[in-house]
Design a protein that fits this description.
The complex is a heterodimer of chains A (234) and B (307). By secondary structure, chain A is an all-alpha fold. Chain A contains six helices and no strands. The termini of chain A are far apart. The relative contact order of chain A is 0.13. The model of chain A has no long low-confidence stretch (mean pLDDT 94). The N terminus of chain B is likely disordered. In chain B, the strands form two sheets. Chain B has a six-stranded mixed sheet, with helices on both faces. A four-stranded antiparallel sheet of chain B has the order 2-1-4-5, with helices on one face. The chains are: A mainly alpha (234), B alpha/beta (307). Chains A and B meet through helix 1 and helix 2 of A and helix 9, helix 10 and helix 11 of B.
């Protein structure tokens, strides 16, 4: 039987492209934000902050497009799952953009790097690279409807989580008695935390991809009841 | 609602030559000059979004002196799909029948106001309704092929108006344009009634296209069809709007939402007890109508709270 509703399916494809390609903007923002932090480049930080308007614009366009499609085309079955997943995904991408802005804004407040900062910078950079790779992996998994690749995002995210903990511990170690150094270290903790949140968003996008493919929604990890909590601190 | 509104016979609807009113001749100063209209259409300019094909001005249609629609003013975009929606009795069928003067066939009907089409008032002096119906074709609720072969259904109109060129070519072009050619090319001599309902409706669209109209009016074209046949007609409409302006009346709000660029919402205002007079309560791009309508009455209608 010949395919029908050709224009609707074309609109849906365009909407998917718009949402997934918006993530390209955030990978650029992440690269620039980390470079701005490591080189203390306020101008580059400003580019990241201003660049978020483009992500927000794409978010608004996609949101409007999704609402229009729901109202006008009454999608069902796999089309409905895709529309619902796109609505979630564009929110996650918009949040990734905001987190890049959070990182870039810190450039204006971070004191001069103390001796021994390279080791922390290296870990932050690694975590950012990992987050960038995860964004790309989520894009590929979405476009190819690749469940394995989507589920693999959880494993990948463990790398960022580990680096986040390492930055946290190293920051405590480097803190010492100099207020500026402590402040610098606290900012590094924040940046590592923001990157860790970006990683979490990619995992959430992976869950949406799995929902599109399988029709079953399930969280890849249960963040509210993790099984690796240590005992009480005191 | 007066019964006379729906009383046109199928044969009258099908054949512009069966005009029941005395014909007026086209005047030499060119009211609705066919060649000029066709030349404009074929110039293939990309229309501006705001360019109207129809300008409806203060239109009132009355049956036996009692208005059915009143003071309707709006523009219909060229090479756009425009939907007329609204509850039963709101006058949307009356409205669409004004665009090719089908209401002329109802003796008790009277029309005031104007519908300007290519600079001419369709209701102006000297305008021949038969000429109007050549340029502004119509497809009806129930597929209504002639009891003839598939080929003869398409060839009928071109023969009546004496179109030049190869009849085989005309038939093939119309069937291709209506996305029916591949399904019927090997059975053109078979009776049109051998086709499925959806195919019959596409045949009626092909028959309408065969006389090279400028506008296609569709009055509930899918109400007798299953969802797949409906989807094929809708796909066809979206293809045809590259070349034609389309106005559709539909009870199926989702259909209006799916296919149309602009949507007019008509609502009946009850007067003198139980007499309903239709008016446009909102006319906007279809996305706005179905996501964020301005009128409370539109909101209530599209969400199913009234109507």
């Amino acid at each position: 039987m010949a395919q029908v509703r050709v224009e609707f399916h074309e609109q849906l494809r365009e909407l998917e492209d718009e949402v997934i390609s918006t993530a390209d903007l955030t990978t650029t923002m992440l690269d620039q934000a980390i470079e701005a932090v490591t080189t203390n480049d306020a101008e580059l930080a400003r580019i990241v902050i201003d660049g978020d308007d483009r992500v927000d614009g794409r978010y608004l366009d996609s949101h409007q497009g999704i609402l229009g499609l729901l109202a006008r085309q009454a999608p069902v079955a796999s089309d409905l799952r895709l529309v619902a997943a796109l609505l979630h995904t564009i929110v996650h991408i918009e949040r990734i953009g905001d987190l890049c802005v959070n990182i870039a804004k810190l450039v204006y407040f971070i004191p001069e790097s103390p001796p021994g900062s390279e080791e922390i910078f290296t870990r932050v950079d690694k975590a950012a690279q990992q987050a960038r790779d995860q964004i790309s992996q989520a894009q590929i998994a979405f476009r190819d409807r690749n469940l394995e690749l989507a589920e693999d995002l959880v494993k990948q995210d463990d790398i960022i989580d580990r680096l986040n903990r390492e930055v946290f511990n190293a920051a405590i170690d480097i803190g010492g008695s100099i207020p500026e150094t402590r402040e610098w270290a606290a900012h590094m903790m924040l940046i590592a935390r923001y990157i860790e949140r970006i990683g979490d968003h990619t995992v959430d996008i992976g869950e949406q991809i799995a929902f599109v493919i399988s029709g079953q929604f399930r969280e890849f990890t249960d963040a509210s009841a993790p099984d690796n909590l240590p005992g009480p601190a005191r | 609602m007066p019964e006379t509104r729906e009383q046109t016979t199928e044969q009258e609807q099908l054949d512009p030559s069966l005009e029941s009113q005395p014909r007026k001749r086209i005047t030499s100063h060119g009211a609705l000059a066919l060649p000029r209209v066709l030349a404009e259409r074929r110039s293939n300019e990309k229309p501006m979004s705001s360019e109207p094909i129809f300008e409806v001005k203060d239109l009132t249609v009355a049956y036996g002196g009692k208005p059915a629609i009143e003071d309707i003013s709006f523009d219909i975009g060229r090479k756009r799909i425009t939907s007329l929606i609204g509850p039963s009795g709101c006058g949307k069928s009356t409205m669409i029948r004004c665009f090719n003067r089908m209401n002329d066939l109802i003796p008790a009907a009277s029309v005031s106001g104007a519908i300007v089409y290519h600079g001419q008032d369709l209701y102006g002096p000297g305008v021949d309704p038969v000429e109007v119906r050549k340029l502004i074709g119509m497809v009806f609720q129930k597929p209504n092929p002639f009891p003839k072969s598939i080929y003869d259904n398409i060839a009928f109109g071109p023969r009546v108006i004496g179109m030049k060129g190869s009849m085989d070519g005309i038939v093939e072009r119309a069937l291709r344009r209506a996305a029916l050619w591949d399904e019927v090319k090997d059975r053109l001599k078979e009776n049109a009634y051998s086709l499925s309902g959806g195919q019959q409706q596409r045949l009626c669209i092909a028959r309408c296209l065969a006389v090279e109209p400028d506008v296609i009016l569709m009055d509930e074209p899918c109400s007798a069809l299953d969802p797949i046949a409906t989807a094929r007609i809708e796909d066809l409409m979206l293809e045809l709007k590259d070349q034609y302006s389309i106005v559709i009346v539909t009870h199926n709000m989702q259909q209006a939402a799916r296919v149309s660029d602009m949507t007019a919402v008509l609502m009946p205002d009850v007067r003198d007890g139980d007499r309903a007079v239709g008016r446009i309560v909102e006319y906007a791009d279809t996305g706005s109508i179905f996501t964020n309508p301005e009128s409370k009455r539109t909101e209530d209608y599209v969400t199913g709270r009234v109507g």
